[in-house]
Amino acid sequence: MYDRAIGRRRVVAALFVSLSLHALIGLCWLHARSIPSAHGTDISTRVDGPEDEVAFTLREPAPRVTAAASKALNPEATHSEPVTPPPVDPPMATTPGPGAIVQTAYSPAGDGSLEKSHGGTPLHGRPKSGSSVVYVIDRSSSMGDGLLRAATAAVGASLGQLGPDTRFAIVAYNGGTSQLSGELLPPSPDNIELAARWLAGLTAEGRSDHRAGFRDALAFRPDTIYLLTDADDLDAIETRAIRSLIRQPVTINAAIFGGRRTKWETPLERLVQQSGGTIKYIRR
Prior knowledge:
Blueprint: H1 2-34, E1 42-48, E2 53-59, H2 67-73, E3 101-105, E4 132-138, H3 144-159, E5 167-173, E6 177-179, H4 189-200, H5 210-218, E7 224-229, H6 236-245, E8 251-257, H7 267-275, E9 279-283
Helix pairs in contact: 3-4, 5-6
């Protein structure tokens, strides 16, 4: 009898434990059903009872997405302000220094050109107050009518740059020479008109005697000389002959019309650089 009583108590205890576990499992299952799935990570859990096994699945809640992350994931929600590059200052204009070699294209002046400039581009700005300038024009046949007209137009435009206290002269040469006047002239309106008519009458013909052109120009004892030529046959012999004529300091500048610089250093470039002047190659 005693053994049967003990057996009954064990059965009752087992049933009580089993029922308790089943009730607990049922509550967990109902609670899990009441929580909506957020498509998180599945977690499989198995609970062993004394007489049977019940398996159920719990879902881990999906991670919360912050507003910043949500905005980043949505391309339409993003907005970037346009970046405006800082302004770039334009390059400063520079003036060629002594001995500078410049290649440029000949272009007639626009509506703002000075009167009597004949559409030419000035060879210089306003010279130093009280200075004197002589323009030496090569009018040999190698210049042709086109290059000669470009050279005379440049001289006409340069006369308009002269200040009232400067003086000028013009020498033209081929095998011989001719001059606008036997003396330096002030740049008065009458003298500029006289120079314009004289320049218009020049023609391109004959050979070129560069030494003769410089001899007449140096006779005016100018501060500055501007040579306008195509330098077709100006070689080292000619430049040595010109250098031998110089008796006082003078700045020699040159404008080469109708071509490009083809050599590293020409005899004329050396002559110009030694005097502290500048040389330009002007293509039409």
